[in-house]
Amino acid sequence: MHKNLRSWLLAGLILTAASCKNDDVVTPPPGKYDNGFYIVSEGNFGVAPGDINYYDYDKDSIYKYVYSAENPGKKLGTSSTTMQFGTVYNDKLYLVGKYDGPLVAVDAATLKETGRVDSLPGHDGRAFLGVDINKGLLSTAAGLYRLTLTPLTLGTKVSSVDGEVKDMFMSWNYIFVISAKDGILALDAFDYHLVKKLGTAVSGFVLTKDDRDWVWAASATQLKRINVATLAVDSITTGFPVHFNEWTYTNSSMVASTKENAIFIISGNNKVYRYTGDAASLSTPFITLPAGQYFYGKGIAYDRKRNYLILNSNTNIYGADAKNTIYMYNATTGALQHSKTYEGFYFPGMVVFR
Q: How far is it, in rounded angstroms, from Cα 38 to Cα 5?
């Protein structure tokens, strides 16, 4: 959850359980999850665990609690945990929870669960990275850990990294990770030893369409371009504060286009900037949310099939309102294509595409 997570709850804003009754669980019709995207939701603290909602483009509909519908009797944690992260790797959707939440693997097309690790190191997961068909990595508040993918099994800690590890990215011979203690670290992709420290970062990682030799991250005031062969780093001052959640982990609020060489990054609670290689492109926001709307969780995703930016917002800066909105903007022109409002105390962490 945003900011200090549960401050709104402790202040007496205890939310009703009405939105989480079983009769709110709606399963998509046959055809299922082929033309839309998943919304990994944190859950309603003290009321209901996290789950997955699904947006269907054809029907302009939100299908609620689709993980629960596809896996009767199973849950993505408890009402005191938070489901935060999701990514698709080798046709499986990997979900990572915080605050004693689990690591869960499901079939990306059907959402049927295929594996889980209930107890994570430090009782606080962050993100998943697939390394090859058999191996993966799990970042946590207590370090970086090896995973065996079939069956899904937690392995040993990677000794080259200390403390909290957040987002991760693999390119060529290196795995790039964001360490809360040491900033951007380049690890050898074979044995995970530390190759080089690359400076501070609060957000990462993305690749641009044509320049695959560079991976991008960001500090609080700079975009950082890292050469994946030499590990040289170039920095571009943004002129605006790069958004990150200083209180808890949420996946980094930056994405890249697959249609053109453009990077999109959130600033503050309501602005998106678009960097195209020209410093002037950082001078004004590309998109500003409508008045009274605030990003929640990661806040931004990129739909490569439609060239859309998908923006998640809530009418409460902490996400503590039942009114959630999905905005769909053309990623080249910035024109609003569509918006969809749906109700419920979901706290949407991030959008995931198959």
A: 23
Q: Classify domain 7-352 by CATH number.
A: 2.130.10.10
- pLDDT at residue 32 above 50? yes
Q: Order of strands, edge to edge, in the sheet holding 152-157?
A: 125-130, 135-140, 143-149, 152-157
Confidence of residue 55 (pLDDT cuts 50, 70, 90): very high
The percent of residues in the chain predicted with pLDDT above 70, rounded, is: 91
Q: What is the pLDDT of residue 172?
A: 84
pLDDT at 211: 82
C-beta separation of 347 from 44 below 8 A: yes
